[in-house]
Amino acid sequence: MSIQRIYLAGPDVFRPDAAAHGRRLVALCADHGFTGVFPLEESLPADLPSPPAVAQRIYQANIARLETCDAVLANLDFFRGPEPDSGTCFEVGYAVARGKPVVGYIAHGGSFAQRIRQRFPQAVGTGLVDAHGWQLEEFGLPLNLMLGVPCRIVVGDARAALAVLREQA
To answer: What's the rounded Cα separation, in Å, for the pair 102 and 74?
Structure first.
């Protein structure tokens, strides 16, 4: 499979500078010989009647974008707590189900439990349980096994992950 178009998944669409950041990611993809597809709706039709209609439009557009891409580059770092963005996780799962390679990136190494302890110590109890007594996943993977098994996870930034994706192309 030849990799040419890459869907750029991640919570980056929520950044205050989302459009500019998306353009930087697309340019970085071009530097690596790829066409980056950033899923930001910069302009929506004015005739959408309600927030649910806007959400439906964005969902459909992102699925269509994913379908046109050969692979996914995913920012899987913690977002709003000790887990990756849920929308990004859906996009990764969709891509995996469609047989598309996924390379994710995280800022810090270590197992999932170690990473939570380092960045969100208040969320962890003693041993392998969280602050609420629920089991803390520890398989030596940097993320939940449903992401850590099917995806190649790179410690670093988008540039480092693109270099890995370039090796796979």
So the answer is: 7
Q: CA of 2: how far to CAs of 37, 55, 145, in Å?
A: 16, 32, 27
What CATH code is carried by the domain that includes residue 163?
A: 3.40.50.450
C-alpha 26/C-alpha 30 separation (Å) is 6
In a domain, 116, yes or no: no
Q: Could you list the pLDDT tens digit for every one of the 169 residues in the chain?
A: 699 999 999 999 999 999 999 999 999 999 999 999 999 866 666 777 888 888 888 999 999 999 999 999 999 999 999 999 999 999 999 999 999 999 999 999 999 999 999 999 999 998 889 999 999 999 999 999 999 999 999 999 999 999 999 998 7
